[in-house]
Amino acid sequence: MSEYKKPLPLITRTSKVFYDGCREGKLLYQHCRDCGEVIFFPKELCPNCMGRDLEWLESRGKGKIHTFTIAYAAAPPEFAEDQPYVLAIVEMDEGYRMMSNIVDCDFETITCEMPVEVVFDPVTPEVSLPKFKPVVRKK
Amino acid sequence: MGSIRGKTAVVGVGEVPTGMYPERSFIDAAVSASEMAIKDAGIRKEDIDTVIPIVVVSNALDNANMICSWMVEELGLGRTAKSNFQVASGGSSSANALKTAAALVNAGLSKAVLVVHSDRLGTGLDLGMAITMFAKVSTSQEYEMPYGFSQLALAGLLQQRYMHDTGTTERQIAAVVETNRKWAALNPNSIFYKKPITIEKVLESPVISSPVRARTMNKLCDGASAFIVTSAERARDLTGQPAYILGLSSRCTHFTVTQQPDIFKAWSPAVDEAYEMAGIGPGNVDVAELYDAFPTFTLISTELTQLCGRGEAGKFFEEGHAAPGGKLPIQTNGAMMGQGHTGAGGGPALLVEAVRQIAGKAGERQVDNVRHVIVTGSGGVGMDFHMEVLGKEV
Q1: Do A69 and B160 touch (CB under 8 A)?
Q2: pLDDT band at B56 (very low <50, low <70, confident <90, very high)
Q3: What is the three-class DSSP state of B203?
Q4: Is the terminal CB of chain A with fewer CB neighbours within 10 Å at N or C?
Q5: Beta bridge partners of B54
Q6: Is B128's Cβ below 8 Å from some Cβ in A?
C-alpha cells in the first residue's frame, strides 16, 4: 500500500476520542446530559446550555444524504487523482449532520434523501475515516 | 436595537475596473478607488477621520500588514484620522463595515468614514494556490478536510439541495448567469463588459462539481472599490444625491456548511427587521443588489428577501424579470458572476452600485425612478446574511 497523501484530520482532545472510536469501528457523537442536546462536531462545551457534562454515544451509523456533489475537476490538488469522487453532507438518524464521501456505489444513482450507512476506511494505521455507502432499508 | 433609520448616508463611491491587472498593486488600486469616492462625495479628505479597509484574501502579508494605517499614510490623513481598523467577515465585510461606519457616525464618534476594499484574486495568486486556499476556508480541520471539500464543492452541495427542494431546473440556474452577464455587458468596470452569454452556452460547459458547470462558476479577478459614510445632515450639503441608510439587519448562524440550519427560518428575521426599520416592504424595492458568488445564492437571496415566493426565483429569472428592462432589476452591476470575484470585494461593489443607482449615476444600467435599493451580503460558506435598505429620501 502506497503512502497516504491526502489531508489527515487534526487530532485534538475531542477529535482523538472520535477517531479512536472509528478505529474500533464505532461512529461516536456527543450528547449533553444537562439539556439533552445532540452535538456534532464534538465539543468541550454544550453550545445549547454551556454545560460540560457531555457523554459520548455510539451512532447506529445510518442516515440519509442531505446533499451531495460529484467533483470532476478543480478539486484540491491532493484529491486530483481521486476525481471523480462524491462529497456529501449526511443527515444521521440521531439528528446531526456530517461531511463525508459516498463510496461503493454507481454515481448515477445518488440522490438527496438516499439512505446510507457508515463504512470505515482505514487510511493509515491510526486513522480510519468514516465514509458512507447506499443501503436498502426496510420500511 | 435602536433604529438608525435615515440618520446616516453614503455620500460618495469609487471603483476601479475589475479584471486581470498584474501591473496594478493592491494598494494603488485602493488609493484610486478612495480618490474617486472622495471626489464623488465632494468632501475634503481631511474631513475623513476613520478609515476601514476590508480584509485582503489573496496575500497573507498584505492582509497582516496593517493596511488600515497604510491607507491613512497613502491618503495623507496622518494629521486628521482618529481611528483605523480592518473589518473581516468575508463577503459580508462591506455590510459589517457599513453598519460599523453608520454606528460610529450616529454615535458622534466619527464625522466621515472611508470604507475601502482592494484585492488581487485574479493575478495575485495562481489558480492552484486559489483552489488550495479556498479548500481550507470555513471548513473543519478535524472532521471535514479529509474528504476533499472546496468552495466549488460547496456550490455543488448548495445547488443540489436547492434544486431538490424547489424543483428549480439547470436552465433556470443558467438564466441567472445570462442575466448577470446582460448587466455586466453594460458595465464598463466589469471583466465581461460587452460580453453577454446565452443560456445554451452556459449549459454546454462541462460539469466541474455537479451540478455546477464551468460557466456557473465565478471568475477570480482583481478589483477595488470604496464608499464614504457620513451623517444625513452633512450629506445634504455635500453631494447632489446621498443614499440614505434606511434599514439594516443581519444574522450569523454557523461556521461550516454541514452545520447550516434552515436558512429560511434562521435568516428571515433579519430581512423582516431591515424592511421594518426602513418602513418599506418588498413591494417597494426598485432594485436589488444581491450578494452571490454562485447563481444558486442569487436565487436563494431573491426568495429570502421576499422578492419572490419560495421556489419561484428560477422562473422569475428565466422570464427575464431581473434582467435589463425587467420589472425588478437584480444585480445591476453583474454581481460576482458578471463583474468577477474579487474576494470580499463582491460586497462593496454591490453597495457602490446601489449608491450609483440611487444617485442616477449608473450609466447604461440606470434604472428609472429608483427610490429604494436593497443590498445583501454573506460571508464564508453562507455563515451569515445581511440586508441593507438604501433610499433616495428619508
Answers
A1: yes
A2: confident
A3: helix
A4: C
A5: B87
A6: yes
> Shortest CA distance to B57 belongs to which of B189, B223, B218?
B223
Q: Which of B136, B139, B147, B168 would best serve as a mutation to test chain A binding (most A beta carbons within 10 A)?
A: B147
B1 has a pLDDT exceeding 60 = no
pLDDT band at A139 (very low <50, low <70, confident <90, very high): low
Q: Which long-range contacts (CB under 8 A, 24 or more apart) does A15-22 make?
A: A15/A42, A15/B142, A15/B143, A17/A42, A17/A56, A18/A42, A18/B142, A18/B143, A19/A126, A19/A127, A19/A128, A21/A56, A21/A58, A22/A120, A22/A127, A22/A128, A22/A129, A22/A130
User: Which residues fall within 8 angstroms of residue B10, CB to CB, at 6 or more apart?
Assistant: B98, B227, B228, B229, B242, B243, B245, B351, B355, B390
User: Is it the case that residue B116 has pLDDT exceeding 80?
Assistant: yes
* Whole-number Å distance between alpha carbons of B86 and B79: 20
Query: What was the pLDDT predicted at B129?
Result: 79
Interface test with B, best of A69, A89, A101, A116 (most B CBs within 10 A): A69
B152 and A71 within 8 Å at the Cβ level: the answer is: yes
The backbone torsions φ and ψ at residue B109, rounded to the nearest 5 degrees and listed phi first, read: -90, -20
Measured in whole angstroms, the distance separating CA A40 from the mean position of its chain's CA atoms is: 10
C-alpha cell at B275: 424592511
Q: What is the pLDDT of residues A99-137, one digit of tens each?
A: 999 999 999 999 999 999 999 999 999 999 999 999 975
Nearest-by-Cβ selection for B160 from A18, A99, A112 = A112
Place of cell 428549480: B168
B50 exposed, middle or buried (CB, 10 Å; 0-12, 13-18, 19+)? buried
The CA–CA distances, whole Å, from A1 to A18, A125, A130, B198, B219 equal 25, 12, 19, 48, 39
| CB-CB under 8 Å, A68 with B160 | yes
pLDDT tens digits, one per residue of B117-158: 999 999 988 777 788 888 888 889 999 999 999 999 999 999
A129/B256 CB distance under 8 A: no
Q: Which helix (H) or strand (E) holds B117?
A: strand B112-120
Which residue blocks in B226-340 are alpha helix, DSSP H? 232-238, 263-266, 268-278, 295-304, 313-318, 335-339
* CB distance A56 to A30 below 8 Å: yes
The DSSP output letter for B253 is -
For B126-255, where are the alpha helices, taking DSSP H only?
Answer: 127-134, 151-166, 170-184, 199-203, 232-238
**Cα(A63)–Cα(A130) distance, integer angstroms:** 13
Angstrom distance (rounded) from CA A74 to CA B150:
9
What residues of chain A lie within 8 A of the CB of B296, using their CB?
Answer: none
Cα–Cα distance between B379 and B299 in angstroms, integer?
16
> Helix or strand or coil: residue A96?
coil
